[in-house]
């Protein structure tokens, strides 16, 4: 075996090893601006509902999310909807009252970085959901990014069914 063949084989082996660690170790790389860019650990067994918990969810197969995909807010992926999972934080749970105007209010409390925009940076309308004032149902959660005030989250797509949770995630190495 010559030196070039050895180096190519070594490089391929390293790539396969890294991919295996990600796949079997349940690590996720986040490159979206909703939360810090970096490496996160997924715990698929932890689907408990708790305010402030960071989770990975599958977007539902709805016209609203396919419209979001066409505008570039959600990417194609491996969820049943054929969309990429989203990292979001649980901001509200069953029986919480949501009010959406210029900001998001949960149980009357204005949420940090919850600005509600009418248009995105390209001038496209951001008014997806018609739900503006409501109580969350037993199976619903409200997702909000407190990291990026321009995140595509429940302020635009409304509540999400908790059955769409893949699991809890925690940052391992972010920048």
Word description of this protein:
This protein has helices at 3-24, 63-70, 154-157, and strands at residues 27-30, 38-43, 54-57, 86-92, 97-100, 104-106, 109-110, 133-135, 140-143, 160-161, 165-174. It is α+β, with helices and mostly antiparallel strands. The chain has one domain (28-174): Umud Fragment, subunit A (Ribbon), CATH 2.10.109.10. A 7-stranded antiparallel beta sheet has the order 1-2-11-3-4-9-10. The protein has a 4-stranded antiparallel beta sheet with strand order 7-6-5-8, with no helix packed on it. A hairpin with a 3-residue loop joins β5 and β6.
**Count of all domains:** 1
According to CATH, the homologous superfamily is Umud Fragment, subunit A
- Overall residue-averaged pLDDT value: 91
What fraction strand? 25-35%
Q: Could you name the ranges where pLDDT drops below 50 across 5 or more consecutive residues?
A: none
Largest sheet: 7 strands, antiparallel
CATH architecture: Ribbon
Task: Sum up the overall morphology in one term.
Answer: elongated
Quote the distance from N terminus to C terminus.
41 Å
Strand order of the largest sheet: 1-2-11-3-4-9-10
Short description:
With 175 residues, this protein is an alpha+beta fold. Helices cover 19% and strands 28% of the residues.
Topology summary:
Elements lengths: L2 H22 L2 E4 L7 E6 L10 E4 L5 H8 L15 E7 L4 E4 L3 E3 L2 E2 L22 E3 L4 E4 L10 H4 L2 E2 L3 E10 L1
Antiparallel strand pairs: 1-2, 2-11, 3-4, 3-11, 4-9, 5-6, 5-8, 6-7, 9-10
